[in-house]
Amino acid sequence: MRTLVAAAAGLAAVATSAFPASAIKYGDLDAGEHPYVGLMVAYTWNDVNGDTVQTDDELFAGWRCTGTQMDADTFLTAGHCTFGADAVAVWYGDNLQDVRLGREFVTLAGAIDQSSALAADAWSYDAIYHPEYDDAAFYLHDVGVVDQMTLAEGTTFETYGELPELGYWDEQLALTKNARDSYETVGYGLQWAMPTRGDSDPSVNNQARLDQADWVKYKAGGVLVNNRQFGAGPGQDSYVVLSSNAHTGGTCSGDSGGPTFVEDTTTVVAVTSFGMNETCAGSSGVYRIDTVDDLAWLGQFIG
Questions:
Q1: Spatial CB neighbours of 303, under 8 Å, sequence gap ≥ 6
Q2: Beta carbons of 29 and 288 less than 8 angstroms apart
Q3: What is the DSSP letter of 253?
């Protein structure tokens, strides 16, 4: 799921039956390996003012996700991360606990105020999702971009993420298991999960979850399990399934949209989309972006 940002009470991970998801579970600190991967906070207008002029002070934090800087002004993420967003702010640091605790991010005006040491590194009012994206079936076209980004003074990149070649995953699926590539997924958020027990104290259980959602950038390996249609039908293979366990690492409920790289490269072959269950066990789904449709759409923004 994308993680909701509660304006007055920290973070709240709200489960849905579809489990759109993901941050890193059983991972390692990224430690500067992917400086072009960032945490995004999506903002929406506060509608209580009716017809009055809207300002950045009325753009409130709604949820957070992960994404990848693909060129100087384009950030790649999941479609369900940009859907409904009126603005976005992005931070690229490895450890953003101070940003979370400082709470300048609550309004966009606070987030982009460069007089603060906790200010965002980039922002935009142009959050876009795939034209065929449907929030009720997010897994079919779950890709989005933040375009026309403004970079704060001093924010620069030596390297960007790169788009995959057409049909990358089809080639991988045709290989034997030992001949396939290895993967690395990057994200911020929940590093582990456990079911809520009916006989436990909810405040204790929730705090255990929150303590693992400190806005720290993690990475984890991944092994290709298979390709699934998820009810889409033939010719609509929209995602692949990667392992998610203590041995390989994987994704977990928290923030979505993070990249899956071919290991030791900058090539983004998928964006994190969803988990199979609330404890993040077994496997997770990443949305493949190597199809004709997706590469053509992304090519409009990423140059």
A1: 71
A2: no
A3: S
Nearest to 44 by CA among 18, 99, 92, 81: 81
Alpha-carbon Rg for the chain, nearest whole angstrom, is 18
Integer Cα distance of 255 and 263 in angstroms: 21
Contact indicator for 55, 78 with CB cutoff of 8 Å: no
Rounded distance between C-alpha atoms, residue 183 and residue 71, angstroms: 22
The answer to whether the CB of 79 falls within 8 A of the CB of 136 is no
pLDDT the model gives residue 136:
84
pLDDT at position 55 = 76
Q: Which residues of the chain, if any, have pLDDT below 70?
A: 1-26, 47-53, 189-213, 223, 225-237, 243-255, 275-284
Six-digit token string for 203: 């405040």
Amino acid at 239: Y
Instruction: List the one residue out of 191, 5, 12 whose CA is nearest residue 89.
Output: 5
**pLDDT given for residue 37 in this prediction:** 97
**Residue 44 in 3-state DSSP?**
strand
- Here the tokens at position 187 are 């994200």
User: Which residues of the chain form beta strands (DSSP E)?
Assistant: 3-6, 10-12, 23-25, 28-29, 37-45, 59-71, 74-77, 87-91, 122-124, 127-129, 144-146, 150-151, 183-188, 217-222, 224-228, 239-244, 250-252, 259-262, 268-275, 282-288
With 0-12 CB in 10 A as exposed, 13-18 as middle and 19+ as buried, what is 124?
buried
Global confidence as pTM: 0.83
What pLDDT score was predicted for residue 8?
28
